[in-house]
Amino acid sequence: MAVEVSVRKIIHVDMDAFYASVEQRDNPDLKGRPIAVTDPRGWGIVAAASYEARSLGVRAGVPVAKAKHDCPELLVVYARFALYQEISSSIHAIFGSYTSLIEPVFLDEAYLDVTGNHDFPSATDIARDIRIRIAEEIGLPSSAGVSYNKFLAKLASDLAKPDGLLVIRPSDGQNFVEHLPIERFHGVGPSTAAKMKEFAIRTGGDLRALSLECLVDRFGKHGHYFYGISRGIDDRPVQLKAPPRSHGSDTSFKTHLHTLNEMKLAIQPLIDNVWRKQEDHGFNGRTVTIRLRYSDFTQVTRSRSTSQKLASRDELESISFELLEAQMPLPMAVRLLGVSISNPTSFPASCATGDDEEEPQQLKFAL
Ligand code: TTP
């Protein structure tokens, strides 16, 4: 007999060596090489290190001069923040096609609650799909963790890195935590770890041996969190952050596009998709942006704004077509097309709060 369990389905997606992977994607000379990305404003600190650099001991947060000294073959490149921001929006647009319950964590990481996605009942399949789409449409590696709460989903994506997927099932949650060194626990920083060690707490198992009272006594309000996670329990909801400032849709093509007609045909489903989102969210956007990525991964974005909110799907289509026509003749084949609506005239009230968390549903357990 199938056991009905009340369980949430949470995915944590995290890009691998985000800034460094973008730079390696865009410059063939950097592929497979130890690279560090640093802020061009001259702070001289490694912001991101490629996995090749990490295997040679280079870490984020160390001064570039020290990293270069310790690893002379290290290649250092400047960060391109506007590009990372743009890529982050594309990644979040992919997330948005599976759930609207998304909690972004910085640019390259997010929690997704997919419990309510009945079109796609397996969270593992969703995570697999997301990773494939990020690789194919954006050209970057990511890792994902799937579990029944945020703590374990994040732990799973950390353990899956780089370029991996790991599922922690409810029956395995406590086991995963049992032997885990407390430094690996999300939420245990260096000073808490040092304090835990003073009490001879080194692993999840050590933490679990202590009563709630004792943990609250030693770690204040965080004691409740530690008590839960040492048992694989974490009830924190996935919380929506800011309302979306745009709605977009894009897709990449196995067979690249060469003509205006091909692009006009290919953009139709994207226009449908974006218009539906605009209507579903009561979004009053008035700027249309199209995005073309060429076969060499360079891309252009072009926008046009109207004075009022877009009146109809036809208006969205005709502006998108005008923007496409202005790109002719194409300098080379197109591998990806995107369209988005932004610049709302006002935010709908229903978008302005983060409290439309769905109740966990009674589901047959199938992560
Ligand atoms: P992280 O997700 O912490 O790291 P990462 O994506 O580089 O690598 P991992 O595969 O281990 O997740 O950070 C995301 C990006 O944030 C990172 O690529 C660069 C930037 N960043 C900084 O600018 N300063 C920092 O100190 C850190 C840690 C990250």
H/I helix tally: 13
Average of per-residue pLDDT values:
88
Quaternary organisation: single chain
Write down the Rg. 23 Å
Strand order of the largest sheet: 6-7-2-8-9
Which sequence of SSEs, written as H and E, runs from N to C? Answer: EEHEEHHEHEEHEHEHHHHHEHEEHEE
Structure report:
The chain has 367 residues and is α+β, with helices and mostly antiparallel strands. The protein has 13 helices and 14 strands. Strands 6-7-2-8-9 form a 5-stranded mixed beta sheet. The protein has a 4-stranded antiparallel beta sheet with strand order 10-13-11-12, with helices on both faces. A hairpin with a 4-residue loop joins β11 (285-294) and β12. It is globular. Thymidine-5'-triphosphate binds next to β2, α1 and β4.
Describe this structure in a few short sentences:
The protein has helices at residues 18-26, 51-54, 64-70, 81-96, 123-138, 150-160, 173-178, 190-198, 204-208, 212-219, 222-229, 260-280, 313-325; strands spanning 4-6, 10-15, 35-38, 46-49, 75-78, 102-105, 109-113, 142-147, 165-167, 246-257, 285-294, 299-305, 334-344, 362-364. It is an alpha+beta fold.
